[in-house]
């Protein structure tokens, strides 16, 4: 039972983002939003969702998964890529680039939702945006999800 609780605690602590990172991401998103709307007089933050750390999936990831190689086993990955490059020389440049990105952990990004109130021509509206941030907490992508993610009103800015 103790081992199970310890394993759950370790798994949970790996997924939790520190409060410093959360504050830095919140500030970056709020500043980006103010710039996006040209510093309006009435922009009141309502709330931020929890910051989530995610990872982009590459073509090499599916090959490594099929070969039962985890993304932290660098020697096995290099050996597998060398073998695949010998068999498929047309994919060699792409495999080397993706392997380098995996080893240097360049594939991670953060996701955050931001709700705020804004004055739009005398009408106060509640808006909600979905943000993707890089590891330096710079906004990479902002999507208006005020009316849901699958509606035509959801636009990428």
Task: Give a topology summary.
Elements: H1 2-15, H2 19-36, E1 43-48, E2 52-55, H3 59-66, H4 74-87, H5 92-103, E3 108-120, E4 123-133, E5 139-144
Antiparallel strand pairs: 1-3, 2-3, 3-4, 4-5
Helix pairs in contact: 4-5
Folded structure, characterized:
The chain is an alpha+beta fold and about 160 residues long. The protein has helices at about 1-15, 20-35, 60-65, 75-85, 90-105, and strands at about 45-50, 50-55, 110-120, 125-135, 140-145. Strands 1, 2, 3, 4 and 5 form a 5-stranded antiparallel beta sheet that branches. Helix 4 runs antiparallel to helix 5.
* SS field, number of helical segments: 5
How confident overall, as mean pLDDT? Answer: 85
Q: Give Rg in angstroms.
A: 21 Å
The biggest sheet amounts to: 5 strands, antiparallel
**Element-level helix/strand string:** HHEEHHHEEE
Which descriptors apply to this entry?
157 residues, alpha+beta, 5-stranded antiparallel sheet, 5 strands, 25% strand, disordered N terminus
Task: Sum this structure up briefly.
By secondary structure, the protein is an alpha+beta fold. It has helices spanning 2-15, 19-36, 59-66, 74-87, 92-103; strands at residues 43-48, 52-55, 108-120, 123-133, 139-144. Strands 1, 2, 3, 4 and 5 form a five-stranded antiparallel beta sheet that branches.
């Amino acid at each position: 039972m103790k081992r199970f609780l310890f394993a759950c605690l370790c798994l949970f602590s790996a997924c939790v983002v520190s409060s410093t990172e959360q504050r830095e991401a919140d500030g970056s998103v709020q500043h980006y939003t103010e710039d996006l709307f040209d510093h309006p007089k009435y922009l009141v933050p309502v709330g931020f969702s929890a910051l989530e750390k995610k990872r982009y999936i590459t073509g090499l990831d599916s090959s490594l998964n099929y070969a039962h190689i985890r993304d932290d086993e660098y020697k096995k990955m290099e050996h597998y890529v060398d073998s695949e490059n010998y068999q498929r020389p047309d994919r060699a440049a792409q495999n080397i680039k993706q392997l380098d990105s995996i080893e240097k952990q360049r594939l991670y990004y953060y996701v955050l939702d931001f709700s705020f109130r804004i004055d739009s021509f005398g009408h106060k509206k509640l808006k909600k945006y979905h943000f993707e941030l890089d590891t330096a907490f710079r906004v990479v992508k902002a999507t208006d999800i005020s009316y849901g993610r699958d509606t035509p009103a959801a636009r990428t800015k």
